[in-house]
Amino acid sequence: MAARHKIHILNQTIQERAIENSNKYDVVCSFQVLEHVSDVHSFIESSLNCLNPKGYLIYSVSSADSFVTLVQNGILNIPPHHVTWWSDKALFNISDLFGMKLINIYHENLQEIHKDWYASTIAMLALNNFLGRNHSLIDRSLEARFLSKVAFY
Prior knowledge:
Structural class: alpha+beta
Mean pLDDT: 93
Order of helices and strands: HEHEHHH
Shape: elongated
CATH class of the largest domain: Alpha Beta
CATH superfamily of the largest domain: Vaccinia Virus protein VP39
Helix content: 25-40%
C-alpha cells in the first residue's frame, strides 16, 4: 500500500539506521515502541546517535503511573507484549543516564473509550480489598473471573 502511494519504507532497526545516519536528524520519534524493546540502552543510544546536537528525542510510552498497571489479567501489559514499564521517575532517570535535558512529560487524559475499563479496574480493586483478597496482576481463579464480571457491570 505504501509503494502505491510512493512512500518509501525502510525495514531496519534504529541501531542499523544510526550506523550511516549519525547526527543527521532534527527529531527522532518513537511512539509506543520503547516498552516492547529488550535492549533499551542500545535503542536509546542509537536514537541519540541519529540526532544532531540540537535535536529532539520524542518517546511516547504506556505510563507505569497509570491505572493500566493495575488491570488484572491485562495480557497486553505483561511480557512478552510489554517487556518494560515506564514511570515518570524512570524517564527522568533516562535523561540523567544519557545526559539529556528533559523538556516535558505529558500524560494524555483518560479517553472516553477507556472510562469503562478504568471504572471496572477500580471496582475490581475495591472488591478485592473488601473481600480481603490480594490483588495480583495475574489471577485466573474462578473467583477472580466471577469478580471481574461483577466489576465490569
